[in-house]
Amino acid sequence: MRSVSFVLVVVAAIWISNYSSGLIHVCSSAESSAPKPAPWPHQFHSLLFVNYSGSLSLIDLWYDWTNGRNFNIIQNQLGKLLYDLEWNNGTSFFYTLDDNKECRSAQLDVGILRPNWLDGATYLGQRSFDGFLCNVWQKVDFIWYYEDVVTKRPVHWVFYTGRSIHVMTFEVGAALEDAKWQAPVYCFENKKPNEHPASEKSIVDIGFLEYISNGILREVI
């Protein structure tokens, strides 16, 4: 009887060991098979609808990683047309092209977002949003990012402050002509750019320089 009991104990131990190994393998497989967000194309053009606690705006976005630059043309509801020009060396110009010739500049420690800026984001599952079935990720505690399951195009992202971005168009490979990337001459008239170190206190919303503009693509990660 003791021999039989010993054999049963050994068999049970082997079964439990194999079962546990199987669970670990399944869990590891599930983690490794979680969808990854598609890297952004090196050049694209997008129209964005922005809602921030009822304050509405449209952003005409030109992302150009190839040439190290990013351009937000911002129309606030019933407001002036604003231009937010950002370079990968940390230089930014925020200006108007009306008769007032307003311009502010800043020098930051960070460039524009990398195409793979979502690497390391935590996958949260799928959710229907704006009529699309989306995979959803969270990047640290700053941003929640929604990507169309079928096309892999961005559909929506929302920042921890509640600023909500809806992607209306997404043209891969579209590029703005070089002449449009030149800040006006009055941006360079005896003005020293403000310097802003990259920190969570000075830069919010992964690129929203709230004290400078409503732009969206400054790198802080």
From TrEMBL:
Could you tell me the superkingdom of the organism this chain comes from? Eukaryota
Q: Which organism is it from?
A: Nicotiana tabacum (Common tobacco)
Record keywords: Signal
The gene coding this protein: LOC107765693
Secretion signal: which residues? 1-22
The protein's name in its UniProt record: Uncharacterized protein At4g14100
